[in-house]
Each structure stands twice: as structure tokens, then as C-alpha cells.
Specification:
This protein has about 220 residues and is mainly alpha-helical. Helix content is about 80%, strand content about 0%. It has 11 helices and no strands. Helix 7 runs antiparallel to helix 9 (about 145-165).
């Protein structure tokens, strides 16, 4: 069972995730309005690229944008959560071995103590984000059962993985649960809002290009937008 889950099933789930995200990215780009977006972007590529990089840079760095600075506590929670989400699955030693064996990918692994700390940080900050969705009226009104499900699905592989490595009773159950939930998460990423893994960069780039070209960036340059 272990060889099946970490072999063919994992490879299929990983391939589905990568190809699915690629499709979502292509759909997004093809969905841009020809007259309002693509013409402007292709006519002024330098201004567009500059605006895109500025927009992404401000939002990908903690406190890089005003919105991050006005909510410093949430910013720390948000970035801690996402840092753990990215680093732990990619650089955990056990995961690195599987990635190398099954996909031929190889990079250094992080120490187990750091992986445990990041996992705990993900669970704590994820819990804070969950409570925030119910505690703040402006967030609660936008929260659906779908959003809660996705958050819990995201946290589940971390919780079960932590239980497995701590050798709590039922090790085999927690190990298999960790693997299955992790692969379910991979499949869900391109099919759900979790696709913002890629779409975040595309949307921020588009907004940055809009401001760099159409919304004042090229003012007085003969552009009609």
C-alpha cells in the first residue's frame, strides 16, 4: 500500500496538480479582454513588466504594501502560515527522498526540528485564520462552508504528518492518512480557490500592468484607456 500511494498515486496527483495549474494560467491569460488588456500590454511591454514586478513585489513581501502595514498582526500570521505551507512539503527530508525517487527532483532537506516547528506554526496560524473567519463580521459575511473545508483540507496533511512523526498510537493510520490527504490536496489545488498559488501572481501582475500602463502610468502618451 505504501509503495502504491507514494509511487503511482503520488506521481498522478503531482502531475494533475502541475498540469491543472498550467491550464488555469492559460485560461486566465486567454480570458483577458483583447481591447482593454492585451493591446495595452503588448504595446507597452516595458511599462507593463515594471508595473507587474512592482505589484507582485509589494504584496509578496511582509509589510511591502499598505494593506499589510495597517494589519501587522494578521500580516505576521498570514506570512508565517504560507511560509510553512511552502517550505515544509518541499524540504521535509522524507518528502525530499520521495521527490527524488519518484520524480528525479533533488534539493537539500531542512532539519527535522525546523520541519516540526514550521508544521506547528502552520497549525497555530491556520487555527488563528479559522477563528478570524468567524470572529470578524467583515470576514464572516464572506466565509462559506467551502472556504472552511479548503482551510481544513490544507491543515489536515500537516496535522496527520505531525502525529505520524511523533509516533503516537496508530502510527500506520496517521501515516496513510497523511499521504492520502496530501495527495487529495494536490488534486484539489487546481480545481479550487487554492489555485491562487499561481493565480495570485497573474492577478497581481495584471493589476500592476493596469496601473503602469492604463491608469496613469502612460498618461499623456496618446493611449486611449
Amino acid at each position: 500500500m505504501y509503495d502504491l500511494l507514494t509511487g503511482p498515486v503520488f506521481v498522478l496527483a503531482f502531475a494533475f496538480c502541475v498540469l491543472g495549474l498550467l491550464v488555469r494560467a492559460v485560461w486566465y491569460i486567454k480570458g483577458l479582454d483583447w481591447q482593454l488588456d492585451r493591446v495595452a500590454y503588448t504595446r507597452f511591454p516595458k511599462h507593463g513588466a515594471k508595473g507587474a514586478l512592482r505589484s507582485i513585489g509589494h504584496w509578496i513581501l511582509p509589510f511591502g504594501s499598505r494593506n499589510w502595514r495597517v494589519k501587522p498582526v494578521f500580516t505576521i500570521v498570514f506570512f508565517t502560515f504560507h511560509l510553512g505551507l511552502i517550505l515544509t512539503p518541499l524540504f521535509l527530508q522524507g518528502h525530499a527522498v520521495i521527490l527524488h525517487q519518484r520524480l528525479g527532483l533533488s534539493w537539500p532537506a531542512i532539519p527535522m526540528e525546523l520541519a516540526d516547528a514550521l508544521t506547528i506554526a502552520v497549525l497555530i496560524t491556520g487555527g488563528i485564520i479559522l477563528v478570524r473567519r468567524f470572529a470578524l463580521p467583515e470576514v464572516r459575511v464572506l466565509t462559506t462552508a467551502y472556504d472552511i473545508f479548503l482551510l481544513l483540507l490544507t491543515l489536515a496533511p500537516f496535522a496527520t504528518g505531525l502525529l505520524a512523526v511523533q509516533n503516537v498510537p496508530g502510527y500506520i493510520f496517521w501515516l496513510y492518512a497523511h499521504i492520502i490527504l496530501g495527495e487529495a490536496l494536490l488534486i484539489a489545488i487546481p480545481l479550487t480557490k487554492l489555485s491562487h498559488i499561481v493565480l495570485f501572481f497573474l492577478t497581481r501582475a495584471q493589476i500592476g500592468m493596469d496601473f503602469g500602463i492604463k491608469r496613469g502610468g502612460m498618461k499623456g502618451r496618446g493611449i486611449s484607456w
